[in-house]
């Protein structure tokens, strides 16, 4: 055990010994650029760049000339902000320069910083890595920060922001504390109770806590689909027979002619994907080849195969049909309902078990061709041509997205990465092994050492989740997601 903490200490020393700098604002010309410096040499670097005798007041902006420390040439005039550790993002001494955002200005200042001994350019995510090693952020908060930088919609921003504020980490640390107590109770028993009879009361209490915890984790895992779906975007596929207006609908929803629309059947072959923001939720919308059974065209056949495979993977399905086709069918089958038509339609498209799927919206397009259409339950009438009904469709899609992604909240944060899922499943498995081994607690006479081992393994999974148990490979993956300067 202490070998590991020795390793962590070495790592910490390694990371905190370096002083790094980077452009933290975006690349390219801009009004103001922010350059960040962090590490033990920060104070010295600041003095060298500004010729200040004393350190400026912490966290207050100072307007200063910024110089090349060797030539003393003034490179720009800008704001200097001094953040002495530990009250800084990284937990170390650090400062920011807010300078003019021209490329030559930025380069001259980065070059000037590079002339200072033991100060070097940062790698991607290195500032955040320092913050992690200095205990400013745990691993789920680091991931939240990476997601916050990537977030494209309001709901994603909310989930990521809450995570940076410790919504998940509070959850997991609370579970960790419960488990630590359970382990302590069992281990105390092993240490002191070798000869005496087992205190069943203690074991009963621990088993009860473990049972409650495993149920909570199981619930959290179920709910986690929502967080994952929100983080990755809701995979949505438009399906239907050829020429019902699938590509027209995609174009309408993304407000640009992304897909080719023609009256020729079989126009769309490849899957065409666009990412949209609908009601603050991320929608990854796929247009597909029209489903028809009889085609000799090899390319179209492959397109249909791909459409059917999207059908299997999608979170949400928009099933499209045409008002012209529906009215023809009504003429032939005057007694039937839309439900009958739908049944027949999905069978003819070979969409197996469609009506058993939970998340689909049936859309009747081209209602402009059917002026007397009264509407039906469970179907959204639209016309891509006149745009009638599209607002209603978007509202319905938003409703589905809310169901699929949930509404991020501090009280019920959702796990949202495979890494979270794996560690929680490992934790759950060991808790279940514990409970199985305890069996009927009233007549337990098994091995306490083994029990403690199961709990310790679950605890280790939670440790991996928040980052108290870690390895460099995993950290490289997580911090590799950041850009330089963060
Ligand atoms: N009248 C009418 N025609 C439409 C409507 N939506 C699409 N179309 C036409 O139907 C044809 C097929 O459209 P397209 O989007 O390519 O269908 P897809 O094969 O399902 O992708 C094109 O000629 C479109 O202009 C609509 O709402 N009303
Ligand atoms: Mg098409």
Automatic annotation (TrEMBL):
Domain TrmE-type G: 233-402
One Gene Ontology molecular-function label: GTP binding
HAMAP family linked to this entry: GTPase_MnmE (MF_00379)
Family, similarity comment: Belongs to the TRAFAC class TrmE-Era-EngA-EngB-Septin-like GTPase superfamily. TrmE GTPase family.
SUPFAM superfamilies from the UniProt entry: P-loop containing nucleoside triphosphate hydrolases (SSF52540), TrmE connector domain (SSF116878)
Gene3D superfamilies (UniProt xref): P-loop containing nucleotide triphosphate hydrolases (3.40.50.300), Probable tRNA modification gtpase trme, domain 1 (3.30.1360.120), tRNA modification GTPase MnmE domain 2 (1.20.120.430)
Name of the protein in question: TrmE-type G domain-containing protein
Subcellular location: Mitochondrion
Gene Ontology CC terms: mitochondrion
Origin organism lineage: Eukaryota, Metazoa, Ecdysozoa, Arthropoda, Hexapoda
Keywords: GTP-binding, Nucleotide-binding, tRNA processing
Database matches in InterPro entries: G_TrmE, GTP-bd, GTP-bd_TrmE_N, GTPase_MnmE, MnmE_dom2, MnmE_helical, P-loop_NTPase, Small_GTP-bd
Domain of life: Eukaryota
Gene Ontology biological process terms, A to Z: tRNA methylation; tRNA wobble uridine modification
Pfam families in alphabetical order: MMR_HSR1 (PF01926), MnmE_helical (PF12631), TrmE_N (PF10396)
């Amino acid at each position: 055990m202490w070998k590991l903490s020795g390793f962590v200490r070495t790592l910490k020393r390694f990371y905190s010994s370096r002083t790094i700098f980077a452009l933290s604002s975006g690349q390219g010309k801009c009004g103001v650029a922010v350059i960040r410096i962090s590490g033990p040499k920060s104070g010295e670097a600041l003095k060298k760049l500004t010729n200040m005798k004393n350190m400026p007041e912490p966290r207050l902006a100072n307007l200063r000339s910024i110089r090349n420390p060797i030539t003393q040439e003034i490179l720009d005039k800008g704001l200097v902000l001094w953040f002495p550790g530990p009250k800084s993002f990284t937990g170390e001494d650090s400062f920011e320069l807010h300078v003019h955002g021209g490329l030559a200005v930025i380069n001259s200042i980065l070059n000037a910083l590079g002339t200072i001994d033991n100060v070097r350019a940062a790698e991607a995510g290195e500032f955040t890595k320092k913050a992690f090693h200095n205990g400013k952020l745990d691993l789920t908060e680091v991931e939240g920060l990476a997601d916050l930088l990537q977030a494209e919609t309001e709901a994603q921003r909310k989930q990521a922001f809450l995570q940076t504020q410790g919504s998940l980490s509070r959850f997991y640390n609370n579970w960790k504390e419960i488990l630590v107590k359970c382990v302590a109770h069992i281990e105390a028993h092993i240490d002191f109770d070798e000869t005496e009879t087992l205190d069943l009361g203690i074991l009963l209490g621990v088993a009860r806590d473990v049972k409650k915890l495993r149920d909570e984790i199981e619930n959290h895992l179920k709910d986690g689909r929502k967080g994952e779906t929100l983080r990755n975007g809701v995979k949505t596929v438009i399906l239907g027979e050829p020429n019902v207006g699938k590509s027209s609908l995609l174009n309408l929803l993304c407000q640009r002619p992304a897909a080719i629309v023609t009256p020729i059947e079989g126009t769309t072959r490849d899957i065409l994907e666009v990412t949209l923001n609908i009601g603050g939720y991320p929608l990854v919308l796929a247009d597909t080849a029209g489903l028809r059974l009889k085609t000799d065209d090899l390319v179209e056949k492959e397109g249909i195969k791909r459409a059917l495979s999207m059908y299997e993977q999608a979170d949400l399905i928009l099933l499209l049909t045409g008002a012209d086709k529906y009215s023809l069918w009504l003429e032939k089958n005057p007694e039937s309902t839309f439900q009958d038509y739908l049944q027949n339609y999905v069978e003819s498209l070979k969409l197996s078990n469609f009506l058993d799927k939970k998340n689909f919206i049936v859309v009747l397009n081209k209602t402009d061709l059917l002026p007397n259409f009264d509407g039906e339950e469970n179907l959204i009438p639209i016309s891509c041509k006149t745009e009638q009904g599209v607002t209603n469709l978007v509202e319905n899609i938003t409703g589905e997205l809310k169901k699929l992604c949930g509404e991020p909240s501090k009280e019920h944060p959702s796990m949202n990465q495979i890494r979270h899922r794996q560690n929680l499943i490992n934790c759950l498995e060991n808790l279940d092994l514990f409970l199985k081994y305890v069996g009927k607690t009233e007549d337990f006479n098994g091995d306490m050492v083994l029990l403690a081992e199961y709990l310790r393994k679950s605890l280790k999974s939670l440790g991996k989740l928040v980052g108290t148990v870690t390895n460099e490979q995993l950290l490289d993956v997580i911090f590799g997601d950041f850009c330089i300067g963060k």
